[in-house]
Amino acid sequence: MISKSPQSQSQTNYSLCLDVGNTNLYGGVFAGEELITSFRRDTTTGSAADEFGVFFRTVLRENGIDPSLVTKVGISSVVPSQVHSLRGAAVKYFNCEPFILRAGVKTGLKILMKNPPDVGADRIANSISAVKRYPQQNIIIVDFGTATTYCAISKNAEYLGGAIIPGIKISMESLESRTARLPRVEIVKPENALGRSTVESIQAGLYYSAVGCTREICQNLIRETFKNEKTIIIGTGGFSRMFEDAGLFDTILADLVLDGVRIAMELNTQSFGN
């Protein structure tokens, strides 16, 4: 959890933005365009509306934010079963109908996938924020979440597609569950590519396979999709900071998805009535 000092609350209305993934709910509170606190919560067991509502209000209070000043709630989710409970929490605990990022809402993007509704809301949110930060630039976004996703966006704000591979944690869990003697390990950057124990060997394999895969996919996207034109490569997601020194990215923006939810919510303010 991170927190910044809130502005004078008597003059501030806040937006609560949520990104629901297969493993974690990642949330943040914005004062205008500034993210002032963020948090994570496990989503593998599910929660009722009241559990979510009490959790959100507790997090806000612990960070010095008056929950009654939250006037907007935005939701991006790749877990449909969670949306009903989150909507209920927004209505009951924040007295507002939440904005839900889904097919048909305004995004500022042109989705050129064969079946646009198939694109995950998190990938759209990432792209919205990236385009706002880097207008008229070719962009690749690498998101290290439950799955590792690669998204290509043209300088004309066209979402072109990308690639999806198993995430680092999934790869580690697969080794543990499908082998007799390989243990679960902490996912960290190794000191060397050569592991001198089983644990070090798994850590090295996880890290360097992700580095190699990311470099190869990005190079191919730049060559095939962008014809070797200048392309901004952005890292994001829970494990992105582990690759800060790998030379893979122009920038790492851990909060990209939350900012994208906020921007989409603002674009659609009139259509959902806040």
Task: Explain the overall architecture.
- With 274 residues, the protein is an alpha/beta fold.
- Helices cover 35% and strands 25% of the residues.
- The chain has 7 helices and 12 strands.
- It has helices at 49-62, 80-94, 121-133, 168-178, 198-224, 256-267, 269-272; strands spanning 2-3, 14-20, 24-31, 34-42, 70-77, 99-100, 110-111, 138-144, 147-153, 158-166, 231-236, 251-252.
- The strands form 2 sheets. The protein has a 6-stranded mixed sheet with strand order 1-4-3-2-5-6, with helices on both faces. A 6-stranded mixed sheet has the order 7-10-9-8-11-12, sandwiched between helices.
- The two termini are 28 Å apart.
- The mean pLDDT is 93.
Q: Order of strands across the widest beta sheet?
A: 1-4-3-2-5-6
**Poorly predicted ranges:** none
Q: Characterize the quaternary organization of these chains.
A: single chain
> What is the mean pLDDT?
93
Counting helices, strands and paired strands, the structural category is alpha/beta
Net shape = globular
Rg (C-alpha, Å): 19 Å
Give the % helix. 25-40%
How do the helices and strands follow one another from N- to C-terminus?
Answer: EEEEHEHEEHEEEHHEEHH
Number of helices, counting only DSSP H or I runs of 4 residues or more: 7
How is this fold's topology laid out?
Elements: E1 2-3, E2 14-20, E3 24-31, E4 34-42, H1 49-62, E5 70-77, H2 80-94, E6 99-100, E7 110-111, H3 121-133, E8 138-144, E9 147-153, E10 158-166, H4 168-178, H5 198-224, E11 231-236, E12 251-252, H6 256-267, H7 269-272
Parallel strand pairs: 2-5, 5-6, 7-10, 8-11, 11-12
Antiparallel strand pairs: 1-4, 2-3, 3-4, 8-9, 9-10
Helix pairs in contact: 1-2, 3-6
